[in-house]
Amino acid sequence: MAGAVLNHVRRGSGSPLLLVHGLGAGWNSWSPILDELAEHREVIAVDLPGFGETPPLSGDISIATLTDSVENFIRDQGLDGVSIAGQSMGGRIVLELARRGVGGDTVALDPGGFWSDREVAVFGATLRPSIALVRALRSRLPALLDSAVGRTLLLAQFSARPWALSRETVLPDVRGLADSPSTGAAMDALTKGPRQEGAPAGTVPGRVTIGWGRRDLVTVPGQAARATALFPDAKLHWFERCGHFPQWDAPREATRLILDNTK
């Protein structure tokens, strides 16, 4: 059911900031920037259903039902008007929350849901084999990711500079792709479900900021124009020399973008 309780962590103090992850590690996907965000805000990072330590939904798994789970969490935790940031699938979910009028300021990093028919076909055809590969290599992932060559071979689709990343930065998300029980269903929701709807000007509850990596090979940069056309109130920020995970490739810039555009 969409009202399942979401496992979450809370760090820091100040005005609350809710973090929603994409495919991968659950709340641990935010580890590269979570502590720095928590120096300024009370950070609440959730595990979506079927990721991290939250059980999968018992019914339909779709972007709508995953968004329902976050909306219910916001209500149940008394977080009305909370600022929200999300990345990848989580970026799509936070934009959907804004479209519904839920939350406050919104930051979406490299969100899904804005691809053309050809782009979504390429996304599915390239990411599914990547997921299958990391599952097959599950026991060898720590050793492979300890090597700059191994990181480059495994993560070139996700990072503009995979050789420069640490194993500690990337291992949680790579393991999450392999282990999360909802990875496959969430992929189906992204590739086979409806595209993201937009929000007419003046209808979102707070500021909307969309950040995009210039070298994103998952949600390619051309999709940013569709996203801002559907969300005309949004401000677009480009991450230079950055792939699909700004918290990997540009952690300080991602932190600053989130803090400067939420309250």
Itemize the secondary structure elements and their pairings:
Blueprint lengths: L7 E4 L4 E5 L10 H8 L3 E5 L16 H14 L6 E5 L1 H12 L5 E4 L7 H20 L4 H5 L2 H8 L11 H13 L3 H10 L15 E6 L9 H8 L4 E5 L6 H4 L1 H10 L3
Parallel strand pairs: 2-3, 2-4, 4-5, 5-6, 6-7
Antiparallel strand pairs: 1-3
Termini separation: 31 Å
Pairing-aware structural class of the strands and helices? Answer: alpha/beta
- The count of strands amounts to 7
Poorly predicted ranges: none
Estimate the strand proportion. Answer: 5-15%
- Share of helix, binned: 40-55%
In N-to-C order, the SSE pattern is EEHEHEHEHHHHHEHEHH
| Overall outline | globular
Let me know the average pLDDT: 96
Rg for CA atoms: 17 Å
In this structure, how is the largest beta sheet organized?
7 strands, mixed
Tally the helices: what do you get? Answer: 11
Strand ordering within the main sheet: 1-3-2-4-5-6-7
Structural summary, described in words:
This protein is α/β, with parallel strands linked by helices. β2 (16-20), α1 (31-38) and β3 (42-46) form a beta-alpha-beta unit. The two termini are 31 Å apart. The model has no long low-confidence stretch (mean pLDDT 96). It has helices at 31-38, 63-76, 89-100, 117-136, 141-145, 148-155, 167-179, 183-192, 223-230, 246-249, 251-260, and strands at residues 8-11, 16-20, 42-46, 83-87, 106-109, 208-213, 235-239.
